[in-house]
Amino acid sequence: MYRLSRRGLLQGAAGVAAAGTLGGCAMGGDDAKGGDAKGATSANNPLGVKEDAPLEVVIFNGGFGEEYAKAHEALYKERYPKAEIKHSATQQIAETLQPRFVAGDPPDVIDNSGGSQIDFNGLVSQGALTDLGELLDAPSLDDPAKKVRDTLLPGIVDVGSYDGKFLTLNYAYSAYGIWYSKKLFDAKGWEYPKTWADMIALCKTIKAAGMAPWTYTGVHARYMSWPILAAAAKLGGIEVIKAIDNLEPNAWKHEAVKAAADAYYQLAVDGFLQPGAEGMDHIQAQTEWCRGHAAFVSCGSWLENEQKSVTPPGFDMAVAPTPSLTTGDKLPFGAFRGTGSEPFIVPAKGKNVRGGMEYLRVMLSRKAAADFTTKVSSLTAVTGAADGLSLSPGLTSVTELIDASQGSAFTWLYSTYYRKLERERVNAASLELFTKRITASQWCDQVQKSADEFAKDPAIKKYKRS
Amino acid sequence: MWGKRLFIAVFLIPPLLLYGIFVVSPYAQAFQISGTNWSGLSPAYEFVGLDNFRRLLDDGYFWTALKHNGLLLVLLPVATIMLGLFFASMISVGGRADRAGVHGVRGSGFYRVVYFFPQVLSVAIIGVLWKEMYAPHTGMINGFLRGIGLDGLAVAWLGDPRFSFWCVLAVLVWMNVGFYVVLFGAAMQSIPRDLYEAALLDGAGRVTTLVRVTVPLLWDTIQVAWVYLAIVAIDGFAVVQIITDGGPGSSSDVVGLRLYKTAFADGQFGYASAIGVAMFFLTLTVAVMFLRVTRRERVEL
Lengths: 466, 301
Fold this sequence. Notes:
The complex is a heterodimer of chains A (466) and B (301). Chain A is of the alpha/beta class. Chain A has helices at residues 6-23, 67-79, 93-102, 120-125, 133-137, 156-159, 182-188, 196-208, 225-236, 238-245, 255-269, 282-290, 303-306, 353-363, 366-376, 393-405, 414-417, 419-434, 440-456; strands spanning 55-60, 85-90, 109-111, 161-162, 165-166, 169-181, 212-214, 294-300, 317-320, 337-345, 379-380. Chain A is built from 19 helices and 11 strands. The longest helix of chain A has 18 residues, at 6-23. The relative contact order of chain A is 0.17. Chain B has a single domain (58-294), classed as MetI-like fold. A two-stranded antiparallel ribbon of chain B has the order 1-2. In chain B, a hairpin with a 2-residue loop joins strand 1 (97-98) and strand 2. Classes of the chains: A alpha/beta (466), B mainly alpha (301). The interface between A and B is large, with 61 and 53 residues.
């Protein structure tokens, strides 16, 4: 009689395992070719979209939701009635789509945003993204005489470019600055300070009035690295930031960065930060601010939408640029960090690359952009698309900020080039700084050390900003 | 003859196939991937030999995470099992003794149910719940401390690298202890009551009874508990990710979280797999060592 021995059973199992390995390998096999076949071009269809090619769009279902995308898809469908559009939305972009990139079967358009966005360093170094240069040079939907490139706000092309190639379209426009409640300031007779000395003086007044001058999120303490870097850029000029973006040696130890870090460190030393803030996440800290427990908070312009449910009526939130550190700052007081967010990409191996680009062109039409602004109260990358719309208080202050800056807005790119450097290293160092465990110059040293690690790591692709 | 073989095969093949595809094959692939620089976004990769493991040796962040797992491995089972034993014995033999035998404390049925509550909640809910409990201003813990006048102790629990790890450990103990109370409680029910009564008659105190009678008789159960808790300690990913995300800095980081971030946030699947392979051997070593150490003969009374 045949008897199954234990060894036989194990051998059988090993055989099954081997078959499984062959059958379902995680690393994918064939190198599928993208569907970049160009159809006939015409004035109405400059990108040569195949009219009946189906289009798949995946949206990050975060602060902006997914409704705006459905409206955009309807606009696309209007232009190409024969195209089937497949829409889906998720919060887990990387987890959902990573296997599809490997299989060579990515969607045609992805809103690669949120906490689990796919790392751009990986996407770019693997050549997984379509060069959108052609889209930039295509005529805009509203005015055939104007290129898409010329309808975008300053900074959008910069922040989406890697080594000179425009690979991501950051659709939403975010202004970063220091937020306060106009209602509160009017009631108390306070005025937003234009210089750092005034800021410290005002903080004293606020503290004396029994309120914490500042709150911040300790969990995401990098939010507080934003005003530091913005102040440094204003003090020392944009070159300071470019050195940081290019991972240059001692870029973080530049005098301007040190001076800025020292200025903000003063907030911790003088006890102007809300006690306990080091243990709060961004929602908890922003909610403290909305409840009137603190006067200032550092954030980007998504703040208003994020806090919609807890903002008291008439709170009248407003954003302002970081105060100038000295009278000799290289950039004017009005300069602020303005940059794109909500990065849309067209994977190179999508089945309908042309359609993907056309979809972005549709998104960049004034009609689509105005619809986005109305639905999610955020500005878009399209210049002047919000003109004539009735905007909420926070958004109004953002448009005023942009107007007042007169083109002096700037941004840094190291956080998109080397996401982890900001999200983990700068984040950790900033919490240490604002809990007074390290001083400003130690903060510079610590971040510089991390930046050097990134510069040395051969596994990380480096980019050069010019 | 053939009928019998077919019969056996019909029962064996489906589970073996499932096991092969969903357990053995991913493990085998992790070993393969750990030798590459695969980014996880395209089918392209190069073999880099043992580079990933060499890098692992110099990676301070990995060692910090590993140190936390090591601490969990020592502290979590000890704390959970001791608390579990204490609660379970209070419930079944902690109360008065009379002519009808030994009783549990008053309301023991109620406690039994309450202790089990955390087990019913999903890990995600437990994580979010505790994150709010620890919140500096709105959290219940600081609310309680302020309420009894201990304002000085109401600190930002999760924002301080001195406390964050211990906060996570406390949550892990809290969420696990209930299950072991029930497990030990059930095992204690099977210990004959007259043993306790005999021990009491011989003048043994409660503590002596617990150490000399209960623990030896529960040894098999405790051993199982230890293995389960060791698995929880080596993992710890979900709770840490939700409550502290490893922070501040990497003061509460664990290896599982490091692996996840390396793979999905940094797009370095090759290196992440190397971390996974290291974990595999580590877990294996711990399991083998543990089984060796606790192997002992059946208790004779």
